[in-house]
């Protein structure tokens, strides 16, 4: 097993499949009356969050607690970080406290890589800037596999602000590793340059959402921040929704089995309409539940599984 | 003044000869020289170059003496074979008045290790809004001739036009940091495959090329001299080539790091590789090397940019851009071009001295010429250890690399500043 999980590229097909299989076992715990395993008893997991992200933090917290780890939540607000402490000094502090794993969310791309140089414990990237969010990709893959029975050969469209999306980058890497084909869809201003060369050679880019919908097994909608309008990435929220939003009529152009996914939080009415978000095709709530199982698997394998 | 007899030295790659240095000048040159009481420097196997001249050095004083001082930067320069450096204006306070440029100039004289020629800011506070008192800086004791807002682009076209025109009165030159600011908001590294993978905001090549294209047209229009700092892209080379063919009075520099390192270095997220303009691609490097050899790019300039540890030991996006260069520049030139001594002398000494108007520098060692020269051991190889550098900062991108060439001695007006590879003070 790998020591850190910083990028979707850290996982080869075998390791990724092991994580997904382990997550399936972990999911059975959630169905029990006592939702707890003793696997990480006596181990310390630090949630180091430099950005507000309640859903990701509580997902990791629940995962660690279900594995009986001691959890320390270290939020940048109201801590020494707010007083200007450097990432390195924070790392040394966590090191001195004996953190076995540090789960880090940070607005700067690459911050988890820097952290991994300064601590002995495992580092889990819980989202860094506009770079990656590998556990989100794992839970997305887990959700697809649960619903559709496989990943190999699936065609997944990822739609929206790919340029600023850490979810998209991790998903392209992981899905390609697991044999799925990815098509990125969005306005040209929000598709980063040389994306196929940068991430996975088979990745396609399409600027026309309607053209790809009939041909996909999964459509993953990305959150689009309204602030991007001010930077001229697109003219208006209305035009964005008209060209790239997923509404009822568009949803009905999907094959019957196709899923609609969204990493949340959603902008209802912008990239997705309530009709779609609340439809039976939507896996959005399921993704949240699966997130805990997948993060349990990641922590278990990084911290405990390899010692047995 | 001590008299020095340098024996068996190859002057700019020529046949071995002796050089007698007396009273600050090269008194005699030829084989079998002798001089009573002279200190003999056995330079067998060494190459004598005219003392190197850097058009682009950040000495950080006043303001960030924790990162570098005029004295420590001068020592680093001498150890790198330099006898003159042009000190950039982005200090704190900014070198935008006669008072600040004279202070830097005086500190350089006191250190006495290289000639420190201050560069003046183009605009007050580098704010890009109104002209600094360029004439006052030109008339000051520092005798400023190069003006630059380096670190910032003079992006306002009207202001750039006026600056280019105004400095004609005292044969000044505007050294432009070519970066269209609206195209580089939040930019962290070269825009391309690697920036896409790393999720770092891209700094597109066109942001540099667009400004250079505009500026050569402005310089042509008003008949002024333009110097382009740290050219980093193949597209910029093409713009410069066309402008020079038309006869525009434009000169350009390239840094050692843009001749050697690519944007792939950012994969480590180690901000020691963060620099502005950013490291580019292998194709850009190839174009820059060719342009330098041809003369489309005139000069290698270091953009020596010392930064304190805390400004580099952090997240990439929060780190300051810039890398050390003075103590490694000649080694990089040797690594890239091999022992093409005439090319190295031209690009690292003669031409930069001419652009900066530094009389007494950039002249090959010959009888009657001021003894500003450096002795290089081309056979030596050395491992770069950041802790061993004379700079106050440690942000070299070449840490633990093995590089060719070593500076054995440097003379400033006949007095050694470096002997046996060590600074004399």
Automatic annotation (TrEMBL), chain A:
Pathway: Pyrimidine metabolism; UMP biosynthesis via de novo pathway; (S)-dihydroorotate from bicarbonate: step 2/3. One of its GO terms (molecular function) is amino acid binding. It catalyses: carbamoyl phosphate + L-aspartate = N-carbamoyl-L-aspartate + phosphate + H(+). Carbamoyl phosphate binds at residues 55-56, 105, 133, 136, 264-265. InterPro entries: Asp/Orn_carbamoyltranf_P-bd (IPR006132), Asp/Orn_carbamoylTrfase (IPR006130), Asp/Orn_carbamoylTrfase_sf (IPR036901), Asp_carbamoyltransf (IPR002082), Asp_carbamoyltransf_Asp/Orn-bd (IPR006131). Pfam families: OTCace, OTCace_N. Residues 3-145 form the Aspartate/ornithine carbamoyltransferase carbamoyl-P binding domain. Its EC number is 2.1.3.2. L-aspartate binds at residues 83, 166, 223. One of its GO terms (cellular component) is cytosol. One of its GO terms (biological process) is 'de novo' UMP biosynthetic process. NCBIfam families: asp_carb_tr, PRK00856.1. Heterododecamer (2C3:3R2) of six catalytic PyrB chains organized as two trimers (C3), and six regulatory PyrI chains organized as three dimers (R2). Belongs to the aspartate/ornithine carbamoyltransferase superfamily. ATCase family. PANTHER family: ASPARTATE CARBAMOYLTRANSFERASE, ORNITHINE CARBAMOYLTRANSFERASE, MITOCHONDRIAL. This is Aspartate carbamoyltransferase. The gene is pyrB.
From TrEMBL, chain B:
Binds 2 Zn(2+) ions per subunit. The active site is at residue 303. The keyword Nucleus does not apply. PROSITE patterns: DIHYDROOROTASE_2. It catalyses: (S)-dihydroorotate + H2O = N-carbamoyl-L-aspartate + H(+). It comes from the Bacteria. Keywords: Hydrolase, Metal-binding, Pyrimidine biosynthesis, Zinc. Coiled coil: none annotated. One of its GO terms (molecular function) is dihydroorotase activity. It holds the Pfam family DHOase. GO terms for biological process: 'de novo' UMP biosynthetic process; purine nucleobase catabolic process. Substrate binds at residues 58-60, 90, 276, 307, 321-322. Its EC number is 3.5.2.3. Residues 47-234 form the Dihydroorotase catalytic domain. Its cofactor is Zn(2+). It is an enzyme of class 3 (hydrolase). One of its GO terms (cellular component) is cytoplasm. Pathway: Pyrimidine metabolism; UMP biosynthesis via de novo pathway; (S)-dihydroorotate from bicarbonate: step 3/3. PANTHER family: ALLANTOINASE (PTHR43668:SF2). Belongs to the metallo-dependent hydrolases superfamily. DHOase family. Class I DHOase subfamily. Catalyzes the reversible cyclization of carbamoyl aspartate to dihydroorotate. This is Dihydroorotase. It comes from Micromonospora marina.
